[in-house]
């Protein structure tokens, strides 16, 4: 990811956008935050927010026309928030820090401000603050301009004097009782001029005007038809305090640029009112009428202001965060996360603190699906994983176990290309995938026989599709897996692949688009009489679509028709089909962040009380491990006792290896009458383990074969430690990048395992004394 | 980091190959190009060090993760 891409992504995430109130406010007060603090009763905090954008908060609170209300999402749900009334309560009930002006060092440039109304005062203060020489002229006898013509009930004189005192005390040069005449005004003494005299007191400087009689200005820079002469306030539009204030601020930016001789127009976006891109979902929000002050003449009391501020919806998008435990877990949202990801890649010496974040995403695509602008955090994470792998900066342990599991599946232990048993040319091949074979080896021959009856010339390809490599960002390994699969497919004569797994489907679609595939769903147990499923009739299951089926309507529909044909009622989860959630297995997140995946699973399995039904082995296995009765569609089609199967504990990692090996043996025997046996010496090591030890090994990602190889190594080398008191033996073996330690006792040829652990650090082969 | 046996008690483990008692020594642990010394029980004769489970699953795992994120 380069900087341009980072900025594009930051721009794409609309959660970064202003809420409508702030966007419509021509000076962009952080109204959302101000209302939040008001609701909490922190009026002084709220005042600070207001004062940060506005040097005359009390004047604005009493005179603002509230353009913020135009886009307010509350409008249709009880009426827009009465922001100005709340602002008034904020001003009346807060401690106000003394206002002062910090002036930057003197700068060259002298500006004349004609008019000491809101626009003139604002521009004057801004330019004075920046270090310019500023002279304000006004026909009246004090600052305030049009404010003095407003009703005193609305705006007491006391407030005008108090808030405009800043002009008189700041050190700005002011001249009152001055009637500006075009002929006599010393233009040559000033480098820039702002005309802010209001419409009634205008002097004719010979500048272009609009049909309505206002001065014609550039809408962005407020420059008039004459270079260096700017205009704002009542000279360019009908009276409006807030817009005059905005004009003053924008004119000051223009004059600053003009005096510095830089572009007046570059990068000036959203200075005035604009339409925000922020999306806020309003579903389920109940209308609530605006709070009316108990006495209509009065302003809000503190509780009333709090109550009205409480109606604020605190507009934000967060569509993706609402549905994703991963995005929620890190406390922010994609528009911010992308910067963490970018920074993580740019670090040279320090810790890369976002590695775990990048590797914890399941890459399921739900964020993109629910995002109003299709932001795909998964794609960002996958891109980043690839860059990390390419730069050799990917933590080894993040995906190593999954990649070794894949390597096992694509080794001789499981990988096989078996031509059709019937001797016909191979027009179809069943590709069960690695995890179905690992978890339900017993179903594979049944499915084969079922399909073979419908598809003459049915071969079989046993191997892993390469998903773990793709998810880990290991492009070379993924391509290699694809190449090997392609070779198998070519060897069989380019058959159509019958797939059982949507992840396999996605991978093949991505990297081998020339391979034609079709799901096995809707093609199984076709000839079985309806009565065969009679004990399922009327049963209900909530359908969990695997995340890799998100846009595979054909697969989703096939499962639903299959259920219907068996008399089973499929209940739709709120997040299903294209909005389905990942079980936590996707993206190898389960390995990088098991605690978070636990939360992902917990969230999903508690979305509905009834038992779940899915068509991905990993979804079922992860859900049942956390206690949610879940069935695979194959459990209904071929299982003996669905109720029991729904609570089955899935095989552990070692058993999954063993099962794949057995599938290969069985399929070769069944289809080619070949006996397949691998003579691996470590397999002769007989182990005994308690369930506790098995569970501990599973948690530590240690396989039975790792333990067997370690014991074999200890027996061969004699290298070990012994405990004469307990009779235990402890030894280690480092076959590759991991050192395995095993503590055991031996009785005859049976080794009872007491402990097993591993580490990646290398212990100095030679000890240094 | 501390080794499982300490010098005040009789060492529980002895070397399975030569039968010698184990002694505490500084041993270098290294990963991804970084290394540091740790006191471990070793057989001086066979030059083998014993890494106890609590160290492998505790401090060592922590350091591995830190180094992987470097």
Shape, principal axes of CA atoms of chain B: elongated
Sum up the overall morphology of chain A in one term: elongated
Biggest interchain interface, per-side counts: A-B, 38 and 38 residues
Which regions of chain B have little confidence, pLDDT < 50, spanning 5+ residues? 1-10
Rg of chain A is 37 Å
Textual characterization of the structure:
The complex is a heterodimer of chains A (769) and B (70). Chain A is of the alpha/beta class and 769 residues long. Helix content of chain A is 40%, strand content 11%. In chain A, the strands form four sheets. A five-stranded parallel sheet of chain A has the order 3-2-1-4-5, with helices on one face. The two termini of chain A are 48 Å apart. Residues 1-10 of chain B have low confidence and may be disordered. A three-stranded antiparallel sheet of chain B has the order 2-3-4, with no helix packed on it. With 70 residues, chain B is α+β, with helices and mostly antiparallel strands. Chain B has helices at 53-57, 59-68, and strands at residues 14-15, 23-31, 34-43, 48-50. Chain A binds chain B through residues 351-353, 355, 395-398, 700, 718-726, 729-732, 739, 741, 755, 757-769, and chain B through 12-17, 22, 25-31, 35, 37, 40, 42-44, 46-51, 53, 56-57, 60-61, 63-66, 68-70.
């Amino acid at each position: 990811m380069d900087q341009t891409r980072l900025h594009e992504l930051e721009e794409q995430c609309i959660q970064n956008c202003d809420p409508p109130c702030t966007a419509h406010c021509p000076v962009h007060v952080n109204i959302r935050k101000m209302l939040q603090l008001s609701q909490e009763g922190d009026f002084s905090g709220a005042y600070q927010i207001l004062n940060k954008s506005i040097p005359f908060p009390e004047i604005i609170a009493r005179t603002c026309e509230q353009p913020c209300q135009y886009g307010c999402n509350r409008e249709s749900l009880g009426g827009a928030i009465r922001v100005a009334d709340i602002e008034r309560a904020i001003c009346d009930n807060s401690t106000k820090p003394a206002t002062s002006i910090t002036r930057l060092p003197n700068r060259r440039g002298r500006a004349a401000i004609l008019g000491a109304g809101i626009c003139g005062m604002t521009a004057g203060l801004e330019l004075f603050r920046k270090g310019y020489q500023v002279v304000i002229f006004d026909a009246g006898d004090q600052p305030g301009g049009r404010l003095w013509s407003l009703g005193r009930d609305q705006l007491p004189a006391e407030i005008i004097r108090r808030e405009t005192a800043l002009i008189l005390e700041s050190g700005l040069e002011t001249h009152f009782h001055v009637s500006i005449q075009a002929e006599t005004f010393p233009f040559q003494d000033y480098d820039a001029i702002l005309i802010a005299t209001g419409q009634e007191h205008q002097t004719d400087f010979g500048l272009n005007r609009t049909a309505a009689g206002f001065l014609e200005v550039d809408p962005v820079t407020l420059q008039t038809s004459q270079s260096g002469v700017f205009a704002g306030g009542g000279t360019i539009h009908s009276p409006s305090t807030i817009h005059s204030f905005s004009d003053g601020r924008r004119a000051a930016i223009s004059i600053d640029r003009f005096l510095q001789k830089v572009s007046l127009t570059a990068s000036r976006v959203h200075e005035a009112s604009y339409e925000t891109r922020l999306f806020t979902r309003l579903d389920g929000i109940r209308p609530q009428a605006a709070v009316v002050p108990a006495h209509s003449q009065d302003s809000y009391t503190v509780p009333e202001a709090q109550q009205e501020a409480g109606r604020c919806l605190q507009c934000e998008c967060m569509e993706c965060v609402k549905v994703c435990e991963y995005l929620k877990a890190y406390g922010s949202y994609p528009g911010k996360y992308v910067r963490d990801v970018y920074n993580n890649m740019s670090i040279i010496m320090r810790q890369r603190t976002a590695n775990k974040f990048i590797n914890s995403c399941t890459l399921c695509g739900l964020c993109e699906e629910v995002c109003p602008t299709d932001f795909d955090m998964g794609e960002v994470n996958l891109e980043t994983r690839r860059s990390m792998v390419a730069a050799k900066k990917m933590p080894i342990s993040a995906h190593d176990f999954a990649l070794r599991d894949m390597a096992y599946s694509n080794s001789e232990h499981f990988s096989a290309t078996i031509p059709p048993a019937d001797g016909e040319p191979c027009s179809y091949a069943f590709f069960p995938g690695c995890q179905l074979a690992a978890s339900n080896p017993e179903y594979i021959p049944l499915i084969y026989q079922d399909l073979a009856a419908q598809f003459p010339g049915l071969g079989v390809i046993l191997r892993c599709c390469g998903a773990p490599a793709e998810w880990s960002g290991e492009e070379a390994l993924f391509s290699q897996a694809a190449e090997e699969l392609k070779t198998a497919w070519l060897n069989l004569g380019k058959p159509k692949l019958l797939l059982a797994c949507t992840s396999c489907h996605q991978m093949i679609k991505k990297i081998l688009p020339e391979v034609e595939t079709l799901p096995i769903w809707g093609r199984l147990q076709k000839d079985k009489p309806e009565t065969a499923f009679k004990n399922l009739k009327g049963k209900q299951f909530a359908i969990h679509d695997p995340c890799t089926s998100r846009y595979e309507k054909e697969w989703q529909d096939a499962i639903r028709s299959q259920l219907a044909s068996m008399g089973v009622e499929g209940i739709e989860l709120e997040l299903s089909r294209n909005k389905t959630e990942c079980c936590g297995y996707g993206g190898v997140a389960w390995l990088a962040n098991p605690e978070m995946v636990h939360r992902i699973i917990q969230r999903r399995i508690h979305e509905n009380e009834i038992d779940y039904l899915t068509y991905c082995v990993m979804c079922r296995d992860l859900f049942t491990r956390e206690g949610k009765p879940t069935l695979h569609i194959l459990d209904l089609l071929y299982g003996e006792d669905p109720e029991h199967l729904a609570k089955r504990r899935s095989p552990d990692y070692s058993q999954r290896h063993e099962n794949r090996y057995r599938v290969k043996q069985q399929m070769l025997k069944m289809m080619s009458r070949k006996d397949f046996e691998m003579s691996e010496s470590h397999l002769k090591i007989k182990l005994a383990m308690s369930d506790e030890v098995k569970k501990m090994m599973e948690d530590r990602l240690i396989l039975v074969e790792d333990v067997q190889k370690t014991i074999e190594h200890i027996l061969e080398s004699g290298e070990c430690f012994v405990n004469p008191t307990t009779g235990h033996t402890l030894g280690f073996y480092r076959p590759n990048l991991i050192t395995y330690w095993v503590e055991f006792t031996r009785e005859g040829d049976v080794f009872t395992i007491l402990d097993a652990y591993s580490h990646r650090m290398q212990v100095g082969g030679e000890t240094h004394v | 980091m501390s080794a499982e046996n300490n010098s005040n008690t009789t060492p529980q483990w002895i070397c399975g190959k030569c039968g010698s008692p184990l002694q505490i020594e500084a041993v270098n642990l290294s990963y991804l190009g970084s290394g540091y010394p740790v006191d471990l029980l070793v057989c001086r004769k066979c030059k083998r060090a014993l890494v106890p489970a609590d160290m492998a699953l505790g401090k060592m795992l922590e350091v591995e993760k830190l180094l992987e994120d470097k």
